[in-house]
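Quick one:
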Amino acid sequence: MANLNTFDFVVIFLLSNVVQNAIIGNGDSRTLTTIIRDGKMLTEALRRLALRPGEIEHALRLQNGDDVSDVAVGRLGPDGQLVIELKPSEQNATHADVHRLETRLAAIEDLLAVLAEAPGYGSRAR
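Output:
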């Protein structure tokens, strides 16, 4: 090692990087690894990725998930980020859902107002 100069070290580092990429790939994997399916952790996938269930539960809580059982599919992205899809029954209401409910509520209120003004309705209710 004492006989190596700066150029020798540069060549060694460049070669090591090329060999590393040839052996393990460049790390640009575009596929997502499924680790949760239908509310259950896939233990074989967790073992292969050297992950503990507690780490997945923590990542789920960071994304405002309550429990693994609420997850339809959970995948680990190339950057290590947990990407979850909640079961339809656990998903938040959208603006369209709220608008649809407001419209139905307004229709019910209108029907109640008509009934309240109908002759004889007040005497039956009391």
